[in-house]
Task: structure prediction
Amino acid sequence: MLQALRRHWPWILAWCVLTLLGGLALARHEMNRLREDFETDARIAHRLLSQRVVQQDAVMATLSLLQPAEDGSHPEQRLASVYPQILGVQSRQRHANWPNAQLLAAETLSRALRRPALAGVDFARGRYQLVLASEPASYALDIDLRSAVPWSEWPMAADSSPVRVTLEHEGQTFVIQPGRLREGGWQFEFHKHLAAASQPFDMVAVRQVGMADLPWGWMLLWGLAVAGALAALLALQRQRAERRRAEELLRLGQVARLNTLGELAAGMAHELNQPLTAVLANTQAASRLLADDPPDLSTARHAMAQAAQQARRASDVVTRLRRAVERPDLSAQQQALSLQDAVDNALYLLEPELKRREVATLVTPSAMPPMVQAEPVALEQIIHNLLMNALQALEQVPAAERQLTIRLVTERQHGVLVITDSGAGIAADVLPRIFEPFFSTRDGGLGLGLSLCETLAASMGGSLSAAPHSPRGMAFSLSLPLAKNTA
Result:
């Protein structure tokens, strides 16, 4: 699990960043939407309340135009049946007195301002009085705030809306809509005077937005969508990596087959050249012997000369074949290479094999990764062959005991790669022969892999050696000269 996290941490980080950014964008969009809805509802509420107080000003203006009825009736008292917010109407005829000093003071102010004036504002009871001075009678309206709210047109559900709406006047507060206020979160506010100078009330709307109001469902869907997109991208990347790995393994396989063919041809040339040389020597001896016989000496001499000529031709053909398949000099193709990079590349190519065989790999890099002088393809082939041999050896032991250790060190003027496995190992009596061509300890093996690796290492000025590893297994050491600029 920890290994998988380490391998995929860039993707996990990308998911976290994209999910966070997307979540913030969704949260911001939702906050803007909530704010717009809040401000729209608050403006509608303000307009409705302003219309109502303006309407009450109009009612007062209408009252001032009424003349007292000759029959002594009071038609203004019927206003309560038309306007539910008007609880009652009081009037003061000329030379009469108001029942309290507040109404008198309000009338005096109304006369000076030439408009209605407030009297007896009591938000605790939800009531106030509006007085208009006129002739021959002045009037006062008793108004109920709760009934003044046009609930039929109200934009919010008063009982369940989270928005708190109040009217405020000189330190008094009347709650129209309680809303839901809580600690923390973000707060929207709307504050504006009602559109009537006679009733200078402030309408205040407040909404508290908390974490519960954020679009968690959409944010979760966004996170899942990002995870799906990144998973698809990761799968595509893995597919491309597998294709590149397969192409690289195919290339190495082709190079290995060509080199193996070279080894095979060189070995065959070596093996065939000796009997051909013997044939040549024997035919020359026979020719000399036949030359001493009296019967038809010229014919025998001519036949033996032809045999010798054909033997020489066969020898020349084999020599040319050996020269044709002989590997070129790798010294001219060498360059400075990182031994660590070569190991990492080989492990990357063999990653499916390591997983399939359930092999635990431990890489111990050098403090200063050695730079060696080598030919790239030859170095890759040597490391690839050594790792494959180690994997084949580990198949002979239980999965729980399979351990592959790779160590990089710098010794004198050489960079050394040590590959150690916990396989069955190689018997002491056959260990000296493992680098011989056509010698193999594995059924069906050609016996050319290690021979080729040793030849490639030697051609680059290095060496390849093998030794038993305690308590079990083998350790192969590849030593190559350090690059000139690091030596």
Notes: The mean pLDDT is 82. The longest strand covers residues 403-411. The chain is about 50% helix and 20% strand.
